[in-house]
Each structure stands twice: as structure tokens, then as C-alpha cells.
């Protein structure tokens, strides 16, 4: 059994942190895990993606085209970018937060407002969540990545609560841990 998860979004959304947490959680759950990240222009709002593969034995960190079981998109429009990686019976989970790129704000390109409609027309299974607004309710909007991870965790039944806590504790700085864990725990238990 091999499972493939693709994370994507734009720089500054905490995708790489979530990637580290997921890898740690799968390792703690006893799986072989491989990860591959692309974050060339991430500090300037560029595209960031991370391939995570786990199972009994993993040989390559890169998800083959059309083989992603789950895509987690941290930004609304970015949900469309990697749809070709999704399996026929896969699911895309996307954050409804919109981050308007410079190319759109300068008028060079248009921002697609109908992402959900496009996904529906393609008959793709999806789930959506406003992670930014949820994290903002806790006074920590920068933790929208942790909120999206918590929301998505229902698709990772093989990871127990104590494993999530251990993985989060390893990668979230101590001074931010309690608030992030509160966000994660409250959402996970819904």
C-alpha cells in the first residue's frame, strides 16, 4: 500500500511546516515516508508544493502524475494548478482563502473566481474549508496552515491523536505550541 499526498499553495503559507509535521506523523505511525519539496520563489509569494508518499516501502519521493490520493491546497486558486496529479477516486481539500498574486493586482492576469464550479464540472471529489477565518477566531491567523492540517486530518485515520500531538510538538516552537495545538485539537474533535 502506497499513499500519496500533494500539498500546494504560495510562499508564506506554512506549507513546508505542515509537510514536516505530516512526515513526522507518518513516521511515528510506523510507515516508510519520502518527501519532495519545490519552493523556488516561495519567499516572494511563488508556488510551493510538497509531495509526500508513505506506505510499507517507498522508493521515490515524487508522486507520479495522476496518482495523488489527496491534494491539500492552501490557497483557493492554487487548487486548480495540480488537479492532473489527482487519482480518479482521489480528493482535493482546499482552503477558501484567496491570496491575490502581483500578476493579478497589476492587471496582467485575471483571478479565477469559480474554482469550486470548475472542480464540480470535472466531477472531482472535494472538500473546502476557510482555514484563515478559523485560525483568526483564535487570534492567530498565521496558524491557518495548522487549521487546514487539522481539518484534513480526518482523511488520515491511521494517525492517532497522541501521534499528532508529538509531531506538532516537534515542529512548532514552544512559545506558539499551546495556541496552535488548541486550534488543531478543537477542529480535529469537530
Describe this structure in words.
- This protein has a single domain, classed as Pyruvate-ferredoxin Oxidoreductase, domain 3 (3-Layer(aba) Sandwich).
- Helix content is 35%, strand content 24%.
- The protein has helices at residues 15-28, 102-105, 115-121, 131-137, 144-152, 161-171, 174-188; strands at 2-10, 32-38, 47-55, 68-73, 86-95, 125-129.
- α1 (15-28) packs across α6 and α4 crosses α5.
- It is globular and about 45 Å long.
Using the 3D structure, state the CATH architecture: 3-Layer(aba) Sandwich
Order of helices and strands: EHEEEEHHEHHHH
Low-confidence stretches: none
Instruction: Tell me the Rg in angstroms.
Output: 16 Å
- Helical segment count: 7
The largest beta-sheet arranges its strands as 2-3-1-4-5-6
Give the name of the CATH superfamily: Pyruvate-ferredoxin oxidoreductase, PFOR, domain III
In short:
A hairpin with an 8-residue loop joins strand 2 and strand 3 (47-55). Helix 1 crosses helix 6, helix 4 packs across helix 5 (144-152) and helix 5 (144-152) packs parallel to helix 7 (174-188). This protein is 35% helix and 24% strand.
Task: List strands and helices in order, with pairings.
Layout: E1 2-10, H1 15-28, E2 32-38, E3 47-55, E4 68-73, E5 86-95, H2 102-105, H3 115-121, E6 125-129, H4 131-137, H5 144-152, H6 161-171, H7 174-188
Parallel strand pairs: 1-4, 4-5, 5-6
Antiparallel strand pairs: 1-3, 2-3
Amino acid at each position: 500500500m502506497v499513499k500519496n499526498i500533494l500539498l500546494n499553495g504560495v510562499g508564506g503559507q506554512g506549507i513546508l511546516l505542515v509537510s514536516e509535521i505530516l512526515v513526522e506523523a507518518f513516521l511515528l505511525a510506523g510507515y516508510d515516508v519520502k518527501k519532495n519539496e519545490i519552493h523556488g520563489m516561495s519567499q516572494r509569494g511563488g508556488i510551493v508544493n510538497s509531495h509526500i508518499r508513505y506506505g510499507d516501502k517507498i522508493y521515490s519521493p515524487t508522486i507520479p502524475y495522476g496518482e495523488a490520493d489527496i491534494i491539500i491546497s492552501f490557497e483557493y486558486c492554487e487548487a486548480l494548478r495540480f488537479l492532473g496529479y489527482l487519482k480518479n477516486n482521489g480528493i482535493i481539500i482546499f482552503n477558501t482563502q484567496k491570496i491575490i498574486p502581483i500578476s493579478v493586482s497589476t492587471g496582467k492576469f485575471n483571478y479565477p473566481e469559480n474554482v469550486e464550479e470548475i472542480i464540480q464540472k470535472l466531477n472531482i471529489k472535494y472538500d473546502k474549508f476557510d482555514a484563515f477565518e478559523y485560525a483568526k477566531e483564535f487570534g492567530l491567523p498565521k496558524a491557518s496552515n495548522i487549521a487546514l492540517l487539522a481539518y484534513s486530518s480526518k482523511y488520515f485515520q491511521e494517525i492517532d491523536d497522541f501521534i499528532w500531538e508529538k509531531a506538532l510538538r516537534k515542529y512548532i516552537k514552544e512559545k506558539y505550541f499551546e495556541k496552535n495545538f488548541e486550534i488543531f485539537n478543537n477542529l480535529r474533535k469537530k
